[in-house]
Amino acid sequence: MSYIVGLTGGIGSGKSMVAELFAKLNVPIIDADVVAREVVAKGSPLLHQIAEHFGAQILLPSGELDRAQLRQIVFQDPKQKEWLNHLLHPAIRVEMLRQLEAQTFPYVIWVVPLLIENNLTEFCQRVLVVDVPPETQLQRASLRDNADIVQIKQIMAAQVSRETRLSMADDVIDNRLPLHQALPSLQQKVLELHQLYLSLAKNYE
What we know:
single chain; alpha/beta; 2 domains; 5-stranded parallel sheet; 5 strands; globular; nucleotide-binding; kinase; Depp_CoAkinase
């Protein structure tokens, strides 16, 4: 099994962009959001259960999950959110661990927004946090998702504090600069971490 680097950060921090830079170095990426979509793919048993529970309103005309509609329902009702999490989290965890165990590259980047919140750091050999100030999170997330500020604040409130996240980090990437300014330094930082993780993975074996 590969050396596992858990990559996390708050909403709008730029985790996906950092993961893409690692991917360009041929590092395998296992993304919790991707796995979460895979387990509720069209025709899957889990999607059938969700549709039975919430009704056809959470399905798109194509038969796929309407994620925005579902998100709106569960964020307004803690009991419904708990029901959904109870259904999905075990299935997502099992599939992520299956994919992690299948890797043969020296190390793997495991992208999990709620890595700390869901106590998944125990499966990691190292934790990498992408860090930005809360005001940057709000600005980026609202522009990217065209989402309501209130909903973004709710998502942020459901995540651990910035201080807690940083206290759990072995490595931190500061990503507060605008993309056109940040990219060269981000690429350099990822390259340095790549060399570090290859070295750590060799000793880990």
